[in-house]
Amino acid sequence: MVWVLVILLILALLLFVGCYFIFRALIWRKSGKAPPKIVTFFIKGSADSEEFIADQAAAVETINAMAKKRVALKTRDGDQLIAYIAEPKIANDRVIIGCHGMNCNGRREFCFFAPDFVDKGYTVILPDHRGSGESDGSFMGYGTHESKDTFLWVKYAKEHYPGKHIFLIGVSMGAATVLMMSSKRGIQDVDGIIADCAYTNARDEFSYQLKTSFHLPDFPIMQICNLYCRFICGYEFRDASPIDAVKKAHAPILFIHGTADALVPLYMQEQLYEECGTSLPENKRKEKFGVKVEGAPHARSYYTNPELYSRAVETFITHVLRPRTLEITYDEPAEDAVEIEEAPME
């Protein structure tokens, strides 16, 4: 009997140790470089093609060579946040704030997107989230602290670019971040939100990865990892919940998702879209749009089809800023057009 208890105790200890390493891999600060091959080997949908890796390296060099300024802000608890801002030679009246995903930074995440939109006249602000890139912090919040921090960049944009329209775009964890901002006080300063491959909530995403990548049940692994997160980081996985935020959203939202996304499944975008109740009190209308990029893996929709992506974003922005109308059309043939779904107007 004693030996049985000892064996059970050892197994429990090994379980808690193993879960701690999983927790560290999920939450703790990342370098912003590409994940190691051992990670991409195990985690479904996280591996990139050699062609993409080469193209991304060239694009990172391009964005690093662009004229831009480095800005630092302080959070209430004293952490320093860093962002790089690229201003066009001939500016339009629009600012885009880009929120990056896990294991990344602002310049690397938007290395393809940012130069294109700067050339179009947009001022582009690319923060490094707390716990990532050059910003302070030890861990990622999957949208919990990132959504609060990004409001500091909204305030910065409002003060330094007065009169310009402010839009948020986020990819993966960054998409969760901007969606979690949609129901918070301060969102009235934002004209619209673009969410690229967002998850419904962190717990569902981690559970999905346990099942699809490791063929493991989420119990008790998820509960133990969540316990570590609660006591070490001060939040729970369920707190990172874009799907709860979009039910009370107060800004127009464009959802983008690749149909070949194996990391954050397409059905999560569909769930977010269905639950989204984005409303505009001034005209009592609901505005939400959905675009699916055929064949795009996770966080690679712009890379897969930049023309479609740019057209969808600019059409959305133009629609938001012009007198309200239902119709959204494109010059291209129907087979190349963006599929945009709209909520019924009230």
Please describe what this structure looks like:
With 346 residues, the protein is an alpha/beta fold. The protein has one domain: Alpha/Beta hydrolase fold, catalytic domain (Rossmann fold, 3-Layer(aba) Sandwich), CATH 3.40.50. 42% of the residues lie in helices and 15% in strands. It has an 8-stranded mixed β-sheet with strand order 1-2-4-3-5-6-7-10, with helices on both faces. It has a two-stranded antiparallel sheet with strand order 8-9. The protein is globular, with a radius of gyration of 20 Å. The C terminus is likely disordered.
Which keywords apply here?
13 helices, alpha/beta, two-stranded antiparallel sheet, 346 residues, Rossmann fold
What's the SSE blueprint?
Layout: H1 2-27, H2 37-42, H3 50-65, E1 69-74, E2 80-86, E3 94-99, H4 106-109, H5 113-119, E4 123-128, H6 144-160, E5 165-171, H7 173-181, E6 192-196, H8 202-213, H9 221-233, H10 242-246, E7 253-258, H11 266-275, E8 279-280, E9 285-286, E10 288-293, H12 301-304, H13 306-321
Parallel strand pairs: 3-4, 3-5, 5-6, 6-7, 7-10
Antiparallel strand pairs: 1-2, 2-4, 8-9
Quick synopsis:
This protein has 346 residues and is an alpha/beta fold.
Level-2 CATH architecture: 3-Layer(aba) Sandwich
Kindly provide the name of the CATH class.
Answer: Alpha Beta
Spatial shape: globular
Residue share in helix: 40-55%
Low-confidence runs of at least 5 consecutive residues: 38-42, 325-346
Distance between the termini: 68 Å
> Main beta sheet: strand number and arrangement?
8 strands, mixed
Structural class designation? alpha/beta
